[in-house]
Amino acid sequence: MVIAFQITNTTSDFNYNCFLKLALKHPTHQFFMLHQKQHVIKKDLPENVKSVKLKYAHNTGIYHSVLNQIQLRAYLKKYKVDYYFSSNEATIAIKNITKIAFLHHSKAIKQKQKFKKSNHADFLITTNDIVYEQLLHTIPELKNQIYLISHGVEKMEPLSIEDSIKIKQLHTAEKDFFISIQKGCSVAQLLVILKAFSVFKKWQQSNFKLVIYTDEKLANKSKKLLSNYKYRNDVLMIHKADIFESLLGAAYAVVFGGNDINFMEMYQLAYKYKIPMILPEIAHYNSIAKNAAVYADVSEKSIAEKLILLYKDETFRNTIIEEMTKHSATHQWEEISEKVWDSIINNKT
C-alpha cells in the first residue's frame, strides 16, 4: 500500500505526527511526505518514508494554486498512491485514489455550495467538535464520510528544577517569568500584553519578568515603544525558535497572543513542558484545549486578571496542570494515529 500525506509545517502538524508513527508501525507500506521547500524536515525519517518537496503552494494565488494541483496530480500518479491525506480542506479531483481532507476551522464550511464544489475528498477528518457539529449541521448528507479525531499532544517531559534554574540564570537574572507569543502580531497587539503586564506588576509588586517571542520585524518596530515602557527592564524580546523553546520550558505560564499559524506549535510545547496556557476566549481554542487552559478576552484587563490569578493561586495553577496531564494521557500521537488508520485504512466505524 502506498500512502501520501501532505504537511503544512513540521512537528506541530497533524499529518506529520500521525504518519511518522504509522510508518514505524507498518514498515511494509510506503509513505510519501509532501511538503514545501522551506519546511525543515528531520533527517532521521523511517526508511519507508520518502520526503518530496513541492515547488508550489495551494494558498499563494490562483496561478500557484493551479500549478500546485498539477504537481500534486503528477506526484500521486508517479508514485501510484492508494491514499492521499491532504493537509487542509482542499483536495484535487483524481480518480482511483482515496482522498482525505482535514478541516481544522469552520471557515471553509460557511459557503455550503462552494465547499461541496471544491471538495473532492472521499473522507473528511475534523480535529475539534465545533467544526464537526457545524459540518454535520451544514452538510448532513456527508455524515458517513466525516470522522472526529482530536489533535494529539507531545509526551510530557517537563524540565528538571536544575535545568529550569540554569535557563533563568542565563536569560532572566534568575527571576520567574511569563512568556507571550506575539509572532506575526501587530504593534497594537503587542501593546495589549505590555499593558496587561503593567497591571500585573502594579498590583503584585513582584519581580516577575515577561519574555516576548516575536519576529524581527515586530521587534524592530517596537524598540521605541519599549524604550518608553515603565517596566522595560523586566521585558525580554526574543525571536529565535531554539531560545523560545528552552524559555517556554522554564516559564510560569504561556500567553498566546499570536496568529493562528503559531497556535499548534505553542500548544505542543506547552504540553511537552507542562506549562499552563492563557488562551484567547475563542470557541476554536476552547474546543481543542477545553479545561486544560485558562481563557481571557483579548484585552489588557482580562489578560492581567489571569496573570494575577495564576500567580496568586498555586492551587488553581496546579489544577490546570492536572487537567493537562489527564488530557495528555488520552491524546498521545500513538493513539491518535491508530484512530486515523482504523477509521480510513481499515474502514472501521
Q: According to CATH, what is the class of the largest domain?
A: Alpha Beta
Tell me the domain tally. 2
Strand arrangement, major sheet = 3-2-1-4-5-6-7
The CATH superfamily of the largest domain turns out to be: Glycogen Phosphorylase B
Question: What is the distance, rounded to the nearest whole angstrom, between the alpha carbons of the first and last residues?
Answer: 21 Å
Average predicted local confidence, pLDDT: 86
The tally of strands reads: 13
Which structural class is indicated by helix and strand composition? alpha/beta
CATH architecture name of the largest domain: 3-Layer(aba) Sandwich
Q: How does the overall form come out from the CA principal axes?
A: elongated
Q: What portion of the residues fall into strands of 2 or more residues?
A: 15-25%
Order of helices and strands: EHEEHEEHEHEHEHEHHEHEHEHEHHH
Main sheet?
7 strands, parallel
* Rg, alpha carbons: 22 Å
The CATH topology of the largest domain turns out to be Rossmann fold
Helicity level: 40-55%
Stretches where pLDDT is under 50 for at least 5 consecutive residues are none
In DSSP terms (H or I, runs of 4 or more residues), the helix count works out at 14
Explain the overall architecture.
With 349 residues, this protein is an alpha/beta fold. The protein has 2 domains: 2-152, Glycogen Phosphorylase B (Rossmann fold, 3-Layer(aba) Sandwich), CATH 3.40.50.2000; 161-330, 3-Layer(aba) Sandwich (Rossmann fold), CATH 3.40.50. The protein is built from 14 helices and 13 strands. It has helices at 14-25, 62-78, 112-118, 129-138, 161-171, 187-204, 216-221, 223-227, 241-250, 263-273, 283-289, 300-312, 314-330, 333-345; strands at 2-6, 30-36, 49-54, 83-85, 98-103, 123-126, 146-148, 177-181, 209-213, 235-238, 253-256, 277-280, 294-296. The strands form 2 sheets. The chain has a 7-stranded parallel β-sheet, sandwiched between helices. Helix 4 links the parallel strand 6 and strand 7. The longest helix is centred in the middle third of the chain and has 18 residues, at 187-204. The radius of gyration is 22 Å and the shape is elongated. The chain starts with a strand and ends with a helix.
